[in-house]
Design goal:
about 0% helix, about 120 residues, mainly beta, seven-stranded mixed β-sheet
């Protein structure tokens, strides 16, 4: 059984960089041919796919967030990390990490088969 767990600060100040880590257990992030994504849901809004890193280390990003987003991984720890720069209060959301058997988009986030429980991040001074 694959399990994902998000971790990171719950409060970030405007203009700073948000950094979250997803720790995966029960499966390797290098296993063919899975994609490991970050997804967020702002209060009162739908889910938004932010980007993903593949089993081979390639990264894909939502074009609307690409300029501020970086996803990397540490295979020795079986973790992948999200960094979102220049945050504003509009980046306040519950952030999820998830696994999918193919590349997903905002429209197809429900195709992810394993999800973390989500972590609340608030951007406020």
């Amino acid at each position: 059984q694959v399990q994902l767990q998000e971790s990171g600060p719950g409060l970030v100040k405007p203009s700073q960089t948000l950094s979250l880590t997803c720790t995966v257990s029960g499966g390797s992030i290098t296993t063919n041919y899975y994609y490991w994504s970050w997804i967020r849901q702002p209060p009162g809004k739908g889910m938004e796919w932010m980007g993903a890193i593949t089993y081979s280390g390639s990264a894909y990003y939502n074009p609307s967030l690409k300029s501020r987003t970086s996803i990397s991984r540490d295979t020795s720890k079986n973790q992948f990390t999200l960094q979102l720069s220049s945050v504003t209060p509009e980046d306040t959301a519950v952030y999820y990490c998830a696994r999918s058997p193919r590349l997903i988009t905002t429209a197809t986030v429900r195709d992810a088969d394993y999800w973390g429980q989500g972590t609340q991040v608030t951007v406020s001074s």
